Amino acid sequence: MQFIDEARFVVRAGRGGDGSVSFNREKYKPRGGPDGGRGGDGGSILIRATEDLATLEHLACRNVIKADRGRHGSGSNRTGERGENITLEVPLGTLIFDDDGLLADLAEEGDEFTVARGGEAGRGNASFATSTRQAPAFRERGLPGEEREVRLELRVLSDVGLVGLPNAGKSSLLAALSAARPKVGDYPFTTLSPRLGVVDEKGYANPFVVADIPGLISGASEGRGLGNRFLRHIARARLVAIILDASEDPEGAEGTLRAELHAARLSGKPTVVALNKVDLLDEELREYLREAFPGALHISAETGEGVEKLRDLLEAKLREMRAEPVENGEDGEERREHRTFRLEWKGMRVEEEDGVFVVFGEEAERIALKTDWDSREGAEHGWRELDRKGVIAALRRAGAGEGDEVRIGEMEFDFQ
After folding, report:
1. Is the pLDDT assigned to residue 258 strictly greater than 60?
2. Helical packing angle, 283-292 and 250-263, nearest 10°
3. For labelling alongside 322, which of 94, 126, 131, 384 has CA 20 to 30 A away?
């Protein structure tokens, strides 16, 4: 399966079913009352996080995802069938965006977000019967479901992210630290997607996940090389392990890596430094590196030298971090909680555009869409609802008079 960490598509929830206009026609009941039933609500589209997936490949080629519409109501007060919901499964660590920004952050198993809500169904004429209006001959229409273009972005969740230039030996180190068996080669960019390994040693309080992040180069934060699309995975790591090739300009490599982390606003993350491939050095060079990189571990993923010490250091650092209170911020942002973001504007305003009075407002648009304007009784009921919500008064204040064209959402009609 190919590793895909981004997908973009349109989600379109189902429209609600229309209500029904019906009257009871049973034998011996010549004055049977209204019995038109309500429609069924439209199906919604949900996105749910699961541990069973590691890529967004199954969604990468989707252009439009649609849910079923609700069925119309019918006589005898029968409610229409509800449209079936669609649930899209995504890997843990998936972020959901639309044009306005972040909608949800799905970081835990079972986290779920309704990305497009199904349209509300319309009521049948039985719902409008009163003591003074005993035979209403109108119904409501179902509302359209929500529609939006969304972008999914996967950021691998890990405890430790291995960061280094191409050929620093990160894949070999991941294999030495854990049971993972990533592809290893002696050429740049052997790793083209993040690889995960679990470290679960006896004596450790908790197992931890190590991610081999594809090699970065100078300018990666600006899209060079494999680009900054892999820097997003570092943002999810709780601890960054900077892996340097001890046999090839480690000072320059560290400067490049720290500059890229800073440019990506990730320099505030806790870090450890390890010099890999020390088996290729003589004692004189080792001594020089001990002075140049005080506190850095000397390791060899090839021979296993220092690997156990690095493993223990990572476990100890993570244990200390778990005991500390979590601070969320730009650098090292912690996203272990499910978060959803939804902005709704429920105000109402009227503007004149080329002689047409346009009403903006969620409640007014909802009434206009639900009203059956083809029915005289239905239209009268719609005008009463608009008057009750203050829309008619707002139109008059804006200068609208009888016969002027009014537009509310998709509906256009003459002002009465």
Report:
1. yes
2. 30
3. 94
